[in-house]
Amino acid sequence: MRSTILTRTRRWLGASALALMVGVGGVSTAFVMTGQAANAQVQNAAQIVVPQASVQQGFADLVEAVKPAVVSILVEAEAPGESVQRGGRNFEFNFPDLPEDHPFRDFFDQFGQDGPRGAPGGQGRPRHFMAAGSGFITSADGYVVTNNHVVSDATKVTVIFDDGSEHIAEVVGTDERTDLAVLKIEGEDLPFVTFESDEEPSRVGDWVVAVGNPFGLGGTVTVGVISGAGRDIGGSNYGDFLQIDAAVNTGNSGGPAFNTNGEVVGVNTAIYSPNGGNVGIAFAIPARTVRQIVDQLVTDGAVTRGYLGVSIQDVSKDIADSVGLPTASGAIVREPTADGPAVAAGIKSGDIILKVDNEDISDALDLSRTIGSKSPDSTVELTLWRDGAETTVSVQLQVLDETAAAPEQPAEPTPPEAIPEAATSLGMTVVPNGDGSGGLLIQSVEEDTPAAQRGLATGDVILEVDNKPVASAADFDQALAGVEGKGLDTVLLKVSRSGDVQFIGLPIAE
């Protein structure tokens, strides 16, 4: 189980920025009740039948029914070795002239280099290790779901059933972005479980039963409730995690969390912990996401996602006020990607995406997930807020290139010395940007002003004011006058810091 420490990192300008290059991307179980309680029924050749649990009587019937489909995952893996430098852990051997028959040669070969014998600065030999996780069977013919981080770098994967029997597994496919993986074992008529229905998803406050292999203690059962939903744990483009308080620890990764009908509501994947152990907060990938990814991995061995080609950020109240948007919702486009689908459809920097196919978009993460769930090459209709009114555009999505390298961030420019034509307004002094890239350089920011409170700082470059490029003090004053002429009390600034572009709404009322 990955230990995810959720720190409140202050993002500059207080904006939640997200590069939207991707998105994420049941059969209800029948049950039988006789009298006040019923024994669990397991069909050897088919889906498990689970009686509805009675909280007063515990969850023993449910657990007895689902445990045959929950497995432990034993992984043998290999990681690159580390070079060892002299004087400590990073010891570098630097004896190129050491004779081949020298008694120290074997010692250096053991800890030394991948290159020529005795050559300095090489990598150490690969490090072999073993790890354990959890998983569950989703079909009678042996497809198993677990976490990607459980089987990454695996050279051998063994699936261990509750009765102790072992099966060598093949990795069918993995998806790093959602941390899911599908394995395949040989077998017929294996016990399996299903996912909960999208029509009746579990809610915050509903019971969950986690079954897994914490610390190698296979078949461990913990019970709790769904304590939160839609959690974003670390800026993942596919956040939307369920938060549960059932005890989850190292080794539970990839294991299922069940509802009281014995349906899988989520795959346990991370914990919030200051010490690496359970503190009552764990996170599970929701069933709707798991089902979609697993279906693609089983069918194609890989996941393809819709690609819009924009970088985006959340719409704050200040930004909404600056463009006359009634509510702070949607995602504002920082920059469309060159040659991407958005550019072809005419989407511009400063557009706010409010809806996709008439479905409301709450924030940047919601847009990322929504676009990613669409089929590549499909056409979607986007509702935009532009120039104070709604408009619609159609965009034909492309296939996201998962292997494309992220663009390099430009080097941080050296702020030029102050030059004439400085302007002081809104608690800032700005001058033309002397590095030739355009915009206005913020030369100073007064303390305790709205500009300072929203994170603007010396060295930031204002590229646009009210979606209008500015290169001089006169441009700045003219754009500001235009905002006031609209009757707005907040101005939209497009600001660059070290090549990272953000929008910020800055109040202008006295």
TrEMBL record:
Belongs to the peptidase S1C family. NCBIfam families: degP_htrA_DO. Keywords: Hydrolase, Periplasm, Protease, Repeat, Serine protease, Signal, Stress response. Residues 297-363, 426-498 form the PDZ domain. The keyword Hydrolase applies. Pfam families: PDZ_2, Trypsin_2. This is Probable periplasmic serine endoprotease DegP-like. Its EC number is 3.4.21.107. InterPro entries: PDZ, PDZ_sf, Pept_S1C_Do, Peptidase_S1_PA, Peptidase_S1C. It catalyses: Acts on substrates that are at least partially unfolded. The cleavage site P1 residue is normally between a pair of hydrophobic residues, such as Val-|-Val. SUPFAM superfamilies: PDZ domain-like, Trypsin-like serine proteases. It is found in: Periplasm. It comes from the Bacteria.
